[in-house]
Structures are given as structure tokens and as C-alpha cells.
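Researcher: Here's a chain I'd like modeled. Treat it as a single chain, no partners, no ligands.
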Amino acid sequence: MAETSDKPKSEIRRIIEWYEDDIRRYKEMIGEETEYRTIITQEFIDATQRRVDRLKIREERWNASRRELAN
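Model: Modeled as a single isolated chain. C-alpha cells:
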């Protein structure tokens, strides 16, 4: 989900979006190699998705902390 405000994206948000773009591309490339010569498998895609999920949790915790400090 892309941000709609004029606020600059956080570093973690840019990383999440980068991974999500990769996942979309990888889903069309199963059995092929990445630019780093890694064979793309469903397990590889799942592992990348788990990383994205962990980053989203971290991002939400960071945002919650910022909101709490702002109050």
C-alpha cells in the first residue's frame, strides 16, 4: 500500500516496497534465477514474504511509538 501524503517515505517503508516489488516479479519467474543467481522457488518467495511481514510489524511498532511520543 503506497503512502498518499506528501510526507517522505521512511527507510523501512522503502525497503518494504522494494521487497514487495521483488515478490511480484518473482512470482512470474519461478524456476528462473535472480540477478544474484539464486533459483526462484515458492519457498524463496515465502521467505521473502515473511521478511516483509516482519518489517511491517516493526514499522507499525515504530509508528505507534512515534504517535505515543507526539501526544
